[in-house]
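Please check this one:

***
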Amino acid sequence: MGIVEEKIITIGLLLPKLPATAGLYSPAMRSGSLVYTSGQLPLIDGKLIEPGGMGKVNEERKEEAFHASRVSLLNALAAIKSVTGTLDSIERIIKLTIYVASENNFSSQHLVANGASSLLHEIFGDHGNHARSAVGVAELPLNASLELELIVQCKFPII
């Protein structure tokens, strides 16, 4: 276990096992020093954390979605580890993109994204500063409340 995973544990969280893919794609891909994740849902042990899928996010469900973004972020980190062998290879978080299944007139996607952004800062400090997009969408796979993607820059050597 590396330094970054130990930091995750001191925060009171665990890096999950890599969730199974729901199609014919890789959870993460490396290109040079960059690693791109596929969209990660808020899954724990292969199940959406919201019973039956939380579905659309609105003002009343904003806090639940904030938590779901943190779960999705941990899944994205697990995907990165599957490519790099260790999270200690992450030099900088480049970009976080979050898609929020939103009810009409819900415009607080940025507050939902703050869940994942704040966790990146807790784990990586200044290296967790990143560019970000938070986008409201009509529907997501499996009726999930959100989907998250990361782009990270890694140091060499990585496995």
Notes: Residues 119 and 125 are 9 Å apart (CA to CA). The radius of gyration is 15 Å. The chain has one domain: 3-14+30-154.
